[in-house]
Amino acid sequence: PVGVELAASSVSAPSALGERLIGARARDLSLLITRDNPAVRYVSGESHGYIDLELEGDDGLARFVAVETASPGYAAWLQAAFRLKREAGRLGVSRPRGLGLKQRFLF
What H or E segment, with its residue span, contains residue 29? Predict the structure, then answer.
């Protein structure tokens, strides 16, 4: 058996880690949460969005798609992506793709 938890912020409600609630250090806090928790691969408190998950056999692809707003005609973009692979009874998770320089350094 293999298990993984994928979670996304809401599409429209403010994030508990978002700039609107905790100020300009929101992005740095998200980076520190990931750095200090080895089991956590990625945190984004400033973006709203959803997870697009593809599973096939022992492989998977998880994409965090960020959205600008929940209104019709919204803009969406790929914020981060991870390959998932079952290997010898364990889950292998790739490094996140789609990150900025500061995020790549910490992750």
Answer: helix 26-36
- Tell me the per-residue pLDDT of 89-104, one tens digit each, with 9 for 90 and over: 777 776 666 666 666 6
Q: What number of CA atoms fall less than 13 Å from residue 2's CA on the CB side?
A: 15
99's tokens: 């990150």
Find, among 72, 68, 80, 83, the residue nearest to 104 by Cα.
80
The DSSP annotation for 50-84 comes to: EEEEEEETTEEEEEEEEES-SSTT--EEEEEEEEE
pTM of the model: 0.71
Please classify residue 64 by burial: count the beta carbons closer than 10 Å to its beta carbon, then call 0-12 exposed, 13-18 middle and 19+ buried: buried
- The CA distances from residue 52 to 7, 65, 97, in Å, are 11, 7, 14
Contact (CB, 8 A) for 8 and 51? yes
Q: Could you report the per-residue pLDDT of 15-47, keeping only the tens digit for each?
A: 667 666 676 777 777 777 777 887 777 777 777
For residues 28 and 10, what is the distance between their CA atoms, to the nearest angstrom?
20
